[in-house]
Design goal:
By secondary structure, the chain is of the alpha+beta class. α1 links the parallel β1 and β2. The chain has two helices and four strands. It has a four-stranded mixed sheet with strand order 1-2-4-3, with helices on one face. It has a single domain, classed as Gcn5-related N-acetyltransferase (GNAT) (Aminopeptidase). The N and C termini lie close together (5 Å).
Length: 92
Amino acid sequence: MWAELGVHVASRYWRQGYALEAASSVIEHAFTVRGVRTIFAGHNPENVASRRLLERLCFVYTHDEFYAPTGLKHPSYLLAHPAHESGPYPNT
């Protein structure tokens, strides 16, 4: 089973650690309670803060993927559950 992670934080709360704390909790829950093996995430290529967040969460860049709403290729990442690391693509 795999899942997708997205984070949206109001600008007045940026740089206060909320995104990292919330995402870390969601990842922990997904892996330990829900049985998720792999989590997908992506971001707008111009959003450096999102890239840094995913890197801090140990997501691994895999490819750029076209996202129709922006018309851009968005960097895409995966985070595998440590007990199920078998390669760069989700186990479905």
